[in-house]
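Example (one chain per record):
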Amino acid sequence: MSTYCLTHLSDAVLLRGLTTLVAQDRSTTAVLLAHIAECDARRLYLPAAYPSMFAYCVHELHLSEDAAYKRIQAARAARRFPVIFEAAADGRLHLGAVCLLAAHLTPENVSDLLAEAAHRTKSEIEELLARRFPRSETMGLVQALPASPRPEDVQLAPGQVEAPGPEGPEALAGQLAAGQVGTHSKLAPIATKRFHLEVTIGERLHDKLGYAKDLLGHELPSGELALVLEQAVDALIEKLEKRKFAATRRPRGSVRPSANPRHIPAPVKRAVWERDGGQCTFVSESGRRCAARKLLEFDHVEEVARGGRASVAGIRLRCRAHNQYGAECTFGAGFMREKREAAQLAAAARRREAEAQAADAAHRRAAEARARAAAEEVIAPLRSLGFNADEARRAAALCQAIPDASLEQRVRRALSYFQPRLRTFAQAEASPGSTP
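Predicted structure:
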């Protein structure tokens, strides 16, 4: 009889078995989360030729995108707060609950929040969070899964020692769980080589698409939107390829040499991109090549610090995760950590300086605007005294130096502009030869 054929069991035995299996599943899930958390923290997916823990879970462990996303998110939360492992093992919290709570947990509230969320459904926990953490607007519908458990764990390659930008640790995974993509954009296959695209756009893009359809009216009489989008994407791809690996239809015959040893000439970029097929070249010990095609970087086979040259043979494509992993293997995690911390401090100093300069510029603009307003206010009283517009404007300009003075004080200051003329006129009136 098949192991999965249970028709011979009594109701009581079947229910007891179900209860036992659920308890075992909870315990196994907690252990699984602990393994995922530790493998994620050690970044063991990198030597296995995967750019992220998410990619490893989906393509190596064959979990669904949604299952991988939830387990990694829950594992990272449980690594921060180990009490979650116990709560998941004894059934107080399910995976959905942990994922909902993760973003709100702090050392101060973790005990109270987990106790209040125990044995609650997903909708009940959503109501709990809405009550304890009210928000005024809708949160983002698309969530990116970080490839590293903490930003400080990110190691930078020798040639890439800089603070992470928009493509920082949160962008390393480059993939989303299918169940985590919101309704603003949806792409689904509907037939062989046919896909349905559903997307919400703003008024500006709507108007641009309409204008593009009008411009292409002689080429696309039907005005089919898909053809308009295809041409727009083709133009975007051409622009991005030019920026990414210097793609061009008419390459230059000669290239001016650069004194910067890290500079990679455009012909080298084009040749390396074509040779490597736009894919990370890292290969694991088992012979698996990393499949990443996002966040690719040109990496020196031999480090620049050790004399590496920017030739076609000396450059390769690596995803950011494996570029950084290679640097860590070569120079050591401690060295790269020091470089990263120094880069972060330098970036923070640059940000503070930029913010101070922006604040100073804003203060100067505000002061100049206030001074101009103070001067403009004086023009009307001067015109009422009989001065023409040009005279009033030139006289009022003196008031920009005292924008906080009263209107009477500013008018007196403006009248001082005319004192030399009035003094000359008075002297002329007082001279013996003047006409009475």
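Caption: Residues 198 and 240 are 24 Å apart (CA to CA).
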